[in-house]
Amino acid sequence: MRLKDCHNYHDFRQLAKRRLPGPIFNYIDGGADDEVTQQRNSDAFAACDLVPNVLRGVKDIDLSVTVMGQKLAMPLYCSPTALQRLFHHQGERAVAAAAAKHGTMFGVSSLGTVSLEELRKKHDTPQVYQFYFHKDRGLNSAMMQRAKEAGVEVMMLTVDSITGGNRERDLRTGFSIPFKLTLGGIMQFAIKPMWGINYVTHESFSLPQLDEHIDMDGGAMSIGRYFSEMLDPAMNWDDVAKMVQEWDGQFCLKGIMSVEDAKKAVEIGCTGIILSNHGGRQLDGSRAPFDQLKEIVDAVGDKIDVIMDSGIQRGSHVVKALALGAKAVGGGRCYLYPLAAAGQPGVERALSLMKAEIQRDMMLMGCQSVSDLHEGMLRFR
After folding, report:
1. Can you give the CATH number for the domain in which 178 is found?
2. Which one, of 279, 309, 336, lies nearest residue 91 by Cα?
3. How far lies 198's CA from each of 71, 90, 164, 203, in Å?
């Protein structure tokens, strides 16, 4: 199987599985506990049917959207994800370049493996900086100041990760940063030698957003300990309100799932919220974002930009979310598998295929622009 044989999300996943050592593939692929929520995230779309209109004269399709003040050429953007150079040596560089080629937004994580400054200088497409709330308030301010100086347009605070999810696949393989692999995990690396060759022949692994603040040498701090020791589970709405004021720009909260929290985000001055359950990687048994989208749009959609991620595998998923009132849709695994499979060409192909699917689906729905989509075009079983 080669890149040209990949035609959808599942094909990219299979190619990534062939190329990655098991512990790393399972880190991308896995969710929390029984992975019920992870499965539901995609299944939720199957319970919703599209009702197309015909004879609408839809020769030219406009996929552009404006979200949190950013003009995107397509309504799907690359959500920020951690550790990308573990999946492919190009990491965030590949994702940023592919997003720029398609005129869409991309995110850089505070657990990213390329510096936000490097990516900001190289690409002028909108950039999101995703970060976590630390016990050290000075560190929070320093990270926001650094993003401001780099020219980042949108700050994204993840609010559903005050502790790490129970990802049992990682426990079985010993996946952590630095690696503490089980014997079975070590064997998985031995049978995929090309990954190891690429890993040791390119620049050494680092977390440039956090290097100044965390000693990663000698196994001093694993990602798990970062979550348990440095992040502040006592974070509350007053803390976040101060950060929103301090940033004084486009600020969104990622991980909102309830109407009550969506209303609070409006009250403290956020410009966007992202309905997300972290791809099913945090609280297993939580509701799927698509299942929550309508009630949250109905409650706050006229006051704040509502975005959603988690479970996006098809262009039709994007169309359904837009019809329910999402301003844009984020994807994580839908570009991580292609990244792992083939680097920048993989991400470019994945975004091209998704764009073609969205365009085709819009045409078949009788919609010339995203604004033509509306809830009346959907029926729930």
Report:
1. 3.20.20.70
2. 336
3. 36, 10, 29, 10
Q: What are phi and psi of 290, to 5 degrees?
A: -65, -35
* DSSP three-state, residue 284: coil
Is residue 34 within 8 A of residue 284, CB to CB? The reply is yes
Residue 29: give the domain boundaries: 3-380
User: Rounded to an integer, what distance in angstroms lies between the CA atom of residue 295 and that of residue 93?
Assistant: 37
User: What count of Cα atoms within 13 Å lies in the side-chain half-sphere of residue 37?
Assistant: 22
Q: Which residues of 1-28 are buried (b: 16+ CB within 10 A; e: fewer)?
A: eebeebeebebbbebbbebbbbbbbbbb
pLDDT of residue 226: 73
Q: Report which of 138, 112, 316, 146 is spatially closest to residue 232, judged by C-alpha positions.
A: 138
Could you check whether the bond before residue 178 is cis, i.e. omega within 30 degrees of 0? yes
278 is catalytic: yes
The single-letter code of the amino acid at 126 is P
**Is residue 57 helix, strand or coil?**
coil
Q: Which of 101, 104, 129 is nearest to 115 (CA)?
A: 129
Amino acid identity, position 314: R
Residues 6+ apart with CB under 8 A from 55: 366
What span, in angstroms and rounded, lies between the C-alpha atoms of 223 and 170? 12
Cα diameter, the chain: 65
CA 109/CA 82 separation, integer angstroms: 6
What is the rounded average pLDDT of the residues 110-128? 94
Q: How many CB atoms lie within 10 A of CB 143?
A: 21
Tell me which of 88, 89, 102, 278 is the catalytic residue: 278
Reference 189, options 364, 308, 19; nearest CA is: 19
- pLDDT, one tens digit per residue, over 227-274 is 777 888 899 999 999 999 999 999 999 999 999 999 999 999 999 999
Total-model pTM: 0.94
In degrees rounded to 5, what are phi and psi of residue 154?
-130, 130
Give the pair of three-digit tokens for residue 29.
């692929």
Can you tell me the distance from the alpha carbon of 300 to that of 206, in angstroms, rounded to the nearest whole number?
39
| Chain mean pLDDT for the chain | 92
Bridge partners, residue 367, by sequence: none
